[in-house]
Every structure is written in C-alpha cells, then in structure tokens.
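Work through what follows:
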Amino acid sequence: MARYLLAATALPGHVLPVLAVARYLVGLGHEVRVHTGSLFRARAEATGASFTPLLPGIDHDYRELDQRFPQRLRLPPGPARIAFGLRHFFADAMALQCEGLQRILDGGFDADAIVTDTMFCGSLPLLLGERSARPAIVALGISALALSSTDTAMFGSGLPPPATALQRQQYQALQATVRRTVFGDVQRHFDHVLAQLGRPALPGFFADAMFTLPDLYLQLTAQAFEYPRSDLPATVRFVGPLLAPPSRDFEPPPWWHTLDDGRTVVLVTQGTLANENPRHLIVPTLQALAGMPHLHVIATTGGPVPPEVSAAAPANARVVDFLPYDRLLPKVHVLVTNGGYGSVNHALSLGIPMAVAGSTEEKPEIAARVAWSGAGINLKTGQPGSRAIAEAVHQLLGNPSYRQRARALQEAFAGSDALAAIAQALHGLQPAPRHSPPTVPALCA
C-alpha cells in the first residue's frame, strides 16, 4: 500500500473533493494524510485519514474572509477582484503552504505522492525544484479548466471559443492586454514570492503553472463538458465528475412524497460560498415561479433559512437548509444555480438542464460552458430578475433541445468513475525516492 499526502486550500469547494478522494484511498488500504484548514478537521478525520492543519498564518475560516480582507468588497466583480484574490488568497499563502508540506514530509510521512486542489500554490516551489527531491505531485481540477489555449478565450472573460480566424486573433490580443495590464502585478508578485523561496520565476503565465507543472492534472469532469483544445498537454486527463457520496441516515422531510406527484420539480441553489445574500438568486426564483401550481419549487440555502427567504416562499415552494443531492437531484427536472462546479456536474450526470446565474469566482466560465454545451441557459448575471428567471425556466421546459443536450452529456459522464481513475493514476506514477527527505530550507526556504 502507498502513502498519500492530500492538501487543499481551506474553502469548501476545494476541500470537499479532496476529502472524497481521501475517503476512497483509505478504503483501498492506503495511508492518507490530509493537510488543510482546522475548520475541516472533523470531516477529514471522518474519512479515516490522519490530519495536519495548515500553519497558523494561513489557517483561516473562509466565512470570515471579507472581514479579513475588507478591501476586496470594494472591488467590483471581475478582473480586479480576481487579481486581488490571486495575490492575497493564493500567492501570499504559498510559502507557509509549502513549509507545511515539507514539515509533514520531514516528520516521517514519506509520501509516495502529493495530491492538491487546483490552487494550492504551496506545491509550486516543489515543482520548480529538482524532481528527485520530491514526491510526485498531482493536481485535481475542481473547477472549469482555466488553462490558456489558442482555441479558447482568456479564462475569466466568459466568452465562448472563437468561431473565426479573426475572432481568434482578437481573443489573443485581448489576452495579451489583460495579462499585461490586469495581471502583470500578480505575475510579478508570484515570481517575487518564489524568488524569496530560492526558486526561479514561473516558466509562463502564473495561472497556467498549476496545470502545466504538476506531474499529472486530473480534471473532474468529462471532456465533453470542456472546450476542445488542440494544444492540451498530455499530463492533463479528464477523469469524470466527482459526485457527492451516497447520503447516510437520510430522514426525508414530511413533504418529500409530494415530489413524486407528477408536478415538474425546479431546484434553486446558491451553493456553499456565494450564498450570503439570498436576494441574488433564491428570492427572485421563488418570486418568478410563484402562482404556477404545475411546478414544485425547492430552494436550498446552504445554511439557516433567512427570514426573507421564508417570507418569499409561495405555496408551491419548499425551503430547506440542505438536502443531499444523491436523493434530491434524481427528482429534479430543472436546476437554477449560481454555477458551482460540483452542482453543475452532478446535475449534468443526471441529464438535468439548467439556468446558471454566476458572476463571482470562476462561475461565469462555468455558465458559459453550460450554454456552449447546449444543456442550459447562461443568465449572464449573478443577480437576475424574476422575469429573466421565469423566461429561462419556461424555455428549459418548453424547448426539448436543452434536455436532449443534457442527456447527451449524461451519456458522456456515464462511463466514468472519477475516484477509481484517480486511484489508478496515482498507482501509475513514478515511485517517490526512498531516502531521508531534504530539510525545509531545501524545498521551501
């Protein structure tokens, strides 16, 4: 059996996929150590893995990030806010993340491989050092593939792939301008942090490094749900969606049986991170679909149900904090979502068409892929009005092409087993060197 060190940025969307992998590897008999925020200790240990928290300087509660970085809220959604997050959430955490990894390796956990989420930048100093001095490093693609390509627009623009040679040239010119003006300081900051750790500058655009430098990059979706790329590196593999594990001890609410009464079921969710203001999507969806007795509307808030949501709930709606997707989604006909990658992939694995309203993080890119695939509608805003939502749901139910395309993706997903593919990929890696690991300064300075 092997030893695997799994590390994740302390955000739910980054941690939960890693914990699913941890549970699976433990079940195969491997020894697994999880390295992430203390907030996730109980969940990590419940997988059967051992746990080491992030070092104190970066062991934050994701729910308090706005209080910790109030200046972020003053930036409008878009490139400036993305650049701020890349600099302060990710690049500035690199040194302590790397030191945390090295302390675990030096402390007797001689890992055969390190597995990280996409943006765990603590692996970069190791990847830029000598290959013989580190274990294999594998990154998990927990969101839409952000790797630059001549066949796509710049990630973050939300634009579809170029349709003409002229459009391709325009996209490339836009990308060069944005890299220089918006992300130039971020690129220099990444290289500055690496220089302080005794490492060379990144070999290309900083956002591409997390895809091109690891020994393997395993994207958690089917290739059919990603833009085609003629220049995709051989180290990037599609392993299929990582679905939520089967729920245990599920106690259905008293109204659960009504989901099978023949009405059309519409689910609305704002996910786990961007759910602090239900007026962005949940409330307008409840308002949009009120007075439609042929619809059964379910709203999940991801936390305690706010009073304004309860007040907005019409007679044909049910509002709850949480319902397990493996029980709920098979009953759903249409999804209204802010574009979380896990929710979107899970719905597509069941052939559910959707309307996507995403404006933060990478969600506009996920919404764009849904529209490109034909499996749904991109509402092109994070705060759609009730009328736009009602029209989108009407189109999704009335135009059979959306369900047909969603079912085509369901078929593409059907043959995949992400966890088994990840385990197989790890098994096929070059074994780690079996000798006393270097000291912390050698890898993380």
